[in-house]
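[Solved] Which block belongs to which protein?

Original post:
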Amino acid sequence: MLVSNSSYVAPESFILNGIPGLESAHIWISLPFCAMYITSLVGNLGLVYLIHYEESLHRPMYFFLAMLSLIDLVTCTTTLPRALCIFWFSLKEINFNACLAQMFFVHGLTGVESGVLMLMAVDRYVAICYPLRYATILTNPVIAKAGLATFLRGVMLMIPFPFLVKRLPFCQSNIVSHTYCDHMSVVKLSCASIKVNVIYGLMVALLIGVFDISCISVSYTMILRAVISLSSADARQKAFSTCTAHIFAIIITYVPALFTFFTHRFGEPSIPPPLHIFVANLYLFLPPTLNPIVYGVKTKQI
């Protein structure tokens, strides 16, 4: 530990404590986590390879799916190996700067993933509501620009997080009750006011989460109206089936994310810490594991 002045201590490292209260079960918890990581690697790499080399899949829907798979690959690789080291070898120490880097990647990539899910909802809206103009609306340049804008939005909004944390003094514990460097879990160890961090976190949640969920909701409302107006039952079923995988991806991404967000800010006294941390891990690990399986099963071309 490095003493910065008579009151404050700047940590050289943090201790990631895994899932407090369940230390005796860490080995057993690690088994499904390891299986999820392997499944995620195989599934997402397989999807990216298939979409890249299969020309019939060179369409907007599959380009967005490839983006989603790449994001999932980096997200779980940024966090899951570290969690497995905690569970298997009790390697809990993480350098302060490495912790900030992990924080940036975790929150930045989850922000980008939310944006890609929003773009996929818009893609389904155009495909169902304007099928004859689909190819002219969602051209390759439009897809590239939309993907780049989503990536830049996620990255630029998350850049301040490490700097906001680095300015804080840490004069108490350096033990983070988590398997990765979550922003709120780290800043709550500070002995100074974290009001700026909390306000900025809420602002980012509004700019990304609320905006994306609103766009997804509007897209599916318009899709529902268009599908209901179809006269053929087969046509309605076919239209709904093209959205099934995406709806499932939205559910497994946003439900754990919203639970984690609200627990940090409003429900910590009433939510057991092991449950909170376990769901926070599912928030990062479940989508990369299940998305390739769901899209593989529900998408006939894949």
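(Second protein starts here: sequence line, then its structure tokens.)
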Amino acid sequence: MRMKVCQQLLGRAVSHRGASCAVRTGSVTPDTGRWRCAPSATLCSSSTQDRKSRPSMLKHLSTKIRSTGPITVSEYMREVLTNPVAGYYVRKMMLGAEGDFITSPEISQVFGELLGVWMVSEWMAAGRPGRLQLVELGPGKGSLMADVLRVFSQLRSVVGGASVSVHLVEVSPVLSRVQAETLTGTGGQEASGEPDPAGPEYRRGETAAGVPVSWYRRLEDVPAGFSIFVAHEFFDVLPVHKFQRTEKGWREVLVDLDPADPGRLRLVLSPGPTLASSSLVQAGEGRSHVEVCPEGGAIVQLLAHRIRQQGGAALIADYGHDGTKTDTFRGFKGHQLHDVLSDPGGADLTADVDFSFLRRMAGGGVACLGPVTQRAFLKNMGGDARMQVLLRNCSDPSSRKQLIRSYDLLTSPAHMGERFLFLCLLAPGRLAAPPTPTGLKLDRKSPAPLPVAGFSELRFS
């Protein structure tokens, strides 16, 4: 369902950039939905020297397992991805041609622009609060937020009365420096002096337009206030517990040392129930294998609480399912599928997001919309119209071809169009019709609430 207000916003947002036909390139791994760059053995593979120079995550894990026994998949993911010394996200640039994957904002400017229009639309629907915090969880290279801020700049006549600030939740020191370069042009340096080491804000800066930008390691540290949150490819890297149904009941999948080769890891089943298998698997679960992300559930609960108490909205976009898939835990290295237990710390680990679980964890205090497919969301937002503007103003045949190809990667069911899903959390009163004034005779019905951009199906948690 196309909303008139969003079409108007989109038209105004793109009119100042209509002559642009900037192209971002990338492709998608057909069987996984994970973005990868054009093949390049030199750029996409980690060198032997790189493996030798970094601290040994395998040695660290082996010591831990020998001391305490097999560890959960959740603990394995947490150590491999965010260990402060040797974690994948702490030490490595994982995005782009030089990394292990590439995300939608790197593929096409249209993606971030449409999310920017969505944010403006929800701010307007909330009554245009005087202060607006744009909060992104896991901002990648900062490309998405840069596109969003460009839309806000082009809609100054609409949002100019609001005090806008950007708040980025990022654990990777490497990526935070890249984001600072993208958004503030500071080359990764502190733009306002050294932050307080004990304080929650570890980096700060300001865009060329004067929008303040702050970095945090936890969502809890973002200041209170009306906020619009976006989490794109954030929940898929949060640690999951894995459970397998057996004749004796649910057993948790654990990571252990291979007795035949102590230098290798293997997956095993717990001999009996664990606290996680007894508490995290839903009663009546029909699948034989289940992945549950408690940390993702806790973050959704925090988002719901903040939206309920302070207003705002949250948009979660990730590849996932609605409670139907089973074993989705996998690794990526050099833009290719990679054994999850091989070279820990040197490859990305991910699991599809269970959106039915996120909806359930959000609770009844907020409105939950979706999930809808990325194809439906982008087209409902006016993505086709934006593409026509770009194509009309792009005379170079090669660039036109790449524009079409990039948008097809985002929307085609064969690529990312149906692999990625969008879920929205809104304040409980967002979809309620305004009350009918008493003591007046009205010839028409009370005005209906504004529809939510991008979503054609409305559901409440």
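Accepted answer:
You had them paired correctly. Confirming on the second one: The CA atoms of residues 16 and 154 lie 7 Å apart.
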